Amino acid sequence: xxxxxxxxxxxxxxxxxxxxxxxxxxxxxxxxxxxxxxxxxxxxxxxxxxxxxxxxxxxxxxxxxxxxxxxxxxxxxxxxxxxxxxxxxxxxxxxxxxxxxxxxxxxxxxxxxxxxxxxxxxxxxxxxxxxxxxxxxxxxxxxxxxxxxxxxxxxxxxxxxxxxxxxxxxxxxxxxxxxxxxxxxxxxxxxxxxxxxxxxxxxxxxxxxxxxxxxxxxxxxxxxxxxxxxxxxxxxxxxxxxxxxxxxxxxxxxxxxxxxxxxxxxxxxxxxxxxxxxxxxxxxxxxxxxxxxxxxxxxxxxxxxxxxxxxxxxx
Amino acid sequence: xxxxxxxxxxxxxxxxxxxxxxxxxxxxxxxxxxxxxxxxxxxxxxxxxxxxxxxxxxxxxxxxxxxxxxxxxxxxxxxxxxxxxxxxxxxxxxxxxxxxxxxxxxxxxxxxxxxxxxxxxxxxxxxxxxxxxxxxxxxxxxxxxxxxxxxxxxxxxxxxxxxxxxxxxxxxxxxxxxxxxxxxxxxxxxxxxxxxxxxxxxxxxxxxxxxxxxxxxxxxxxxxxxxxxxxxxxxxxxxxxxxxxxxxxxxxxxxxxxxxx
Lengths: 315, 261
Fold this sequence. Notes:
The structure holds 2 protein chains of 2 kinds. Chain A is an alpha/beta fold. Chain A has helices spanning 49-59, 84-103, 115-126, 144-156, 160-176, 206-212, 226-238, 260-264, 289-304; strands spanning 2-9, 15-22, 32-35, 63-67, 108-113, 130-136, 242-248, 274-279. Chain A has 9 helices and 8 strands. Chain A has an 8-stranded mixed beta sheet with strand order 1-2-4-3-5-6-7-8, sandwiched between helices. By secondary structure, chain B is α/β, with parallel strands linked by helices. In chain B, strand 9 (196-203), helix 6 (208-220) and strand 10 (224-228) form a beta-alpha-beta unit. Chains A and B meet through strand 1 of A and strand 1, helix 1, helix 4 and strand 8 of B.
């Protein structure tokens, strides 16, 4: 059995969340899972993913808090002029401060999808109370393995050989009869769309077209330089933080095989602190129920490792 | 705004009460949410509506149906009749908290149908505002399935092996056979009528269901109005999946409707 309570942090503006806790209440020796918003989606998340994860944490004897960052869901907007990233990291730390002050909890696992993953990561870098991260479609960097798969798929795609032949013939003709053409537009930033915004309409092989042609919608997010992320990973791993990285198969132009995260950070010694899942048939918001079940199973398995022996049920 | 849980302790519902800053009107408002993806998309709009109604001196309660949002339970176990009861529980809760004798209901999409059904055996309902109502459940289920399939085909263009359209789910939420059967039976054009002083439908869609409802409404609720909103809210567009909408024209129209005598 678990129980749930409304938690408000601050007065005006206030942050609003729901705390899921074991029936006997929070154990201050156990970490609390804190789930951040995905873009502008309210705290329950797509398919109630945050509700299921926080309840799962409470059933394991940990706590679970899903809350709305300022200006999102039920939380008021802040009145300062800080940028979104600083503001949302500050909100997350304010919630952790509150749980430490009122419940004595000193360890936290942060979880988020898309921008929620980014905010979880950045908070983890800045706050030593963060002992675990669950990053869903978070930062991703291309590797030789990515490009090998990417181009293999293009070559094997239906009709691609015909297109290749056509291009070769036109290329040959252009060499014979030079034609002045305008410069192609710069490629778009290769980041995934935010779940808070409508996804771009894609054709059957639209991801390829996105990479190769034209300006793209403005709701694509930028990732920090890989080296900075690698350095921040080393800092967090030295503290003993563990990571669960989950990528959906929807982002084939950004992440296209299970071990891409490890390959992208070969210069980081993860030891046993990293678990990676690649849900190839999932879309960015894990819409299908079968994918939701795989996602929740991965989260549950990761959370189980955080239970201290005192919290285990004796059977 | 005061977020809280209410209802039975074994199946609490999440709600948010927005009280008026100054002297309250003698009618309070319960906002009945839509379902699934539409609930995610409409959250901000319903919150804004609640706050603006409070500014207009109404006590307002918005809430999550059982098994949805932050309320207890699993969506997979949800039943239409239980949601109708949840709506009645919310009406009772708001009356208890505020002491008002009469309540008006604003329901969005399937929430409009729930408000319609919840008002059938009550004597304390003033107005029902049906905001982009689901008129016929059968059409709604067909539409949900189409949107589910189109959204996933767009999101996963490479996947060719498994069918996207499956029984039992729609855009991230399980639809049990019992729930589907109960939703399919909804047809607001055939009654029975809600026991409300008046009903107002605010609609942008121009389909057959809406035209049939426009024709039937005067005979179902003598004091009624069917109004066309000028701007599409895109509640049923797959481009809007996982986005947040705050249609200000609709919110203005609802506030004006509730302020009328």
